[in-house]
Design the sequence.
């Protein structure tokens, strides 16, 4: 069978998700709060508006209106995806041909690499500096030298939590000719956005998700904000009914409960500050996070990983990435889960 498979696909490895049943799962940057019980009446009333014998709204019309209001733009500036993963994939499909170059500052989210590989593009990695700040000059240089079709920028970045500033993003846009896809999956925890830039500049697209701050990773809903010209291009590769009626119904409820999302996000940020403060006396590197997770670097990495496993806390490590040697990424959880994380760090460093 392999002789019939495209060469680029033969070398790909399926995305593996840890299915271990931890007491606290803090390895995927999900929300620790399941709002279903609170929302069930609203969800039921939205579901009743759907006719499940029929195809759903092909363009997510009502949902796009709600997302447009949330983002102070027009529904024509929004397109929905089956998670922002699908938006990333569609961006690669629109702009990247076989052998085209794509610049990706690393370390970052793995789906950019997969999406580029599927369409046969070639990734030019631009490693960040030792403190994980971005190498802006090198990003621009590599994009121009390689005539890169596309640059993926993750702001704030997964897994480091660091964010490019507005002026750094503006420089990259101004000094290159590439399409700039800005992944703002963690926007709500950061508060700054390039959405207004994307509305004015046809080369820029902002990608968002309801999987993080909105707390509905299970329904799979991502979206993009861009100029009508850019949205039209994405529409050309989008599958006709890519967002199910069930997802649209729950997403409408999530986006209508914006004040609740904001209040939960604020609590998560306070928890993030509390963890950073609690660990400040320990000799570990705690990277400045603008997200719902924190990246740590420690020379006691092995002991820490064992201790997290022993405490039944699922965390994310990067054994195959030299850039992320000794690094552990841990999502913010409930107060109880965060206390358990702090306790593990203090236990492993009890001698200092
Ligand atoms: C930076 C980034 N972009 C996109 C995604 C995927 O989000 P979604 O659940 O919307 O596919 C993630 C998920 O962890 C992420 O970290």
Sequence:
């Amino acid at each position: 069978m392999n002789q019939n498979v495209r060469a680029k696909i033969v070398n790909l490895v399926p995305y593996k998700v840890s299915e271990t049943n931890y007491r606290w799962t803090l390895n995927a940057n999900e929300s620790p709060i399941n709002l279903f019980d609170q929302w069930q009446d609203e969800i039921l009333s939205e579901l009743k508006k759907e006719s499940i014998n029929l195809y759903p709204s092909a363009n997510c019309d009502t949902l796009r209106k709600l997302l447009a209001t949330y983002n102070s733009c027009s529904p024509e500036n929004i397109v929905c995806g089956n998670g922002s993963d699908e938006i990333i994939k569609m961006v690669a499909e629109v702009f990247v041909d076989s052998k085209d170059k794509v610049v990706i500052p690393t370390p970052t989210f793995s789906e950019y690499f997969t999406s580029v590989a599927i369409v046969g593009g070639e990734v030019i990695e631009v490693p960040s500096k030792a403190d994980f700040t971005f190498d802006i000059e090198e990003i621009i240089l590599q994009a121009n030298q390689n005539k890169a079709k596309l640059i993926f920028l993750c702001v704030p970045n997964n897994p480091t939590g660091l964010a490019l500033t507005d002026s750094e993003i503006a420089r990259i846009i101004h000094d290159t000719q590439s399409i700039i896809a800005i992944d703002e999956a963690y926007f709500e925890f950061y508060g700054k956005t390039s959405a207004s830039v994307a509305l004015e500049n046809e080369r820029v697209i902002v990608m968002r998700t309801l999987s993080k701050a909105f707390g509905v990773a299970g329904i799979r809903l991502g979206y993009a904000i861009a100029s009508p010209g850019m949205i039209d291009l994405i529409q050309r590769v989008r599958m006709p009914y890519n967002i199910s009626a069930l997802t649209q119904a729950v997403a409408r409820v999530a986006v209508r409960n914006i004040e609740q999302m904001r209040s939960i996000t604020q609590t998560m940020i306070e928890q993030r500050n509390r963890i950073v403060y609690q660990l400040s006396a320990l000799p570990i590197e705690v990277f400045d996070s603008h997200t719902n997770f924190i990246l740590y670097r420690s020379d006691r990495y092995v002991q820490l990983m064992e201790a997290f496993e022993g405490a039944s806390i699922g965390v994310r490590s990067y054994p195959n990435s030299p850039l992320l040697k000794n690094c552990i990424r841990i999502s913010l959880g409930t107060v109880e889960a965060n206390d358990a994380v702090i306790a593990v760090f203090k236990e492993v460093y009890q001698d200092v």
